Amino acid sequence: MLTLLVPIAGLIFALVYGNLLALNYVHVITGGTWTGIDLFMGLVMSRVMKGLEPQARTQVIKKLVPVMLFLMPSLASVAITSGINLADRLGLLTLESPTIIAAIVIVIILSVQGFGMIMPTEVRVYLELRKKEPDRNKIIKWGMRNIKLAGSQGVFQVALIFVMANLALGFV
């Protein structure tokens, strides 16, 4: 539960006190953590899970889903919210900038994948796991799908980092 509250508390602190450095820190740390977890899931966990027996896969997914169900939406929401606020406060939030438009398009793709595809599937996995006789095949299928989608998110996040690095260097 603490991992869920820390990013949100950091964002609230940065917004309430108007501290630009804190807002930047919250944005970078939550965005970096979100990206790192997605890349880890896609590049490492997908290969690890493929090598496990179905019973072991089910156990890993059973432990992973409750954490991911709450952590990833928290990180994503805080990274996006802090990024929008940061761009606005720095005077960069303009639709005249191709760099900002690229960032917006990538964030929309990440949001649709994360909140529209990954999160609902995580909820289905969680509900299936709570059943008296969970269907292992469904759990594995859905869990592997989400791990692959997380890897896809990692690719989009690397593209977003490229865009953000250009913004940070003044290439608006």
Structure commentary:
This protein is an all-alpha fold. It has one domain (1-169). The chain has helices at residues 2-17, 20-50, 54-89, 98-129, 136-168. Helix 1 (2-17) packs antiparallel against helix 2 (20-50) and helix 1 packs parallel to helix 3 (54-89).
Would you spell out the secondary-structure blueprint of this structure?
Layout: H1 2-17, H2 20-50, H3 54-89, H4 98-129, H5 136-168
Shape by Cα distribution: elongated
Which structural category fits the helices and strands? mainly alpha
Give unreliable regions as ranges: none
How big is the Rg? 18 Å
In terms of DSSP E residues, the strand content is under 5%
The string of secondary-structure elements, in order, is HHHHH
Please tally the β strands and state the result. 0
Q: Helical proportion?
A: over 70%
Q: Largest beta sheet, briefly?
A: none
**Number of structural units classed as domains:** 1
Distance between the termini: 38 Å
Round the mean pLDDT to the nearest integer and report it. Answer: 89
Number of helices: 5
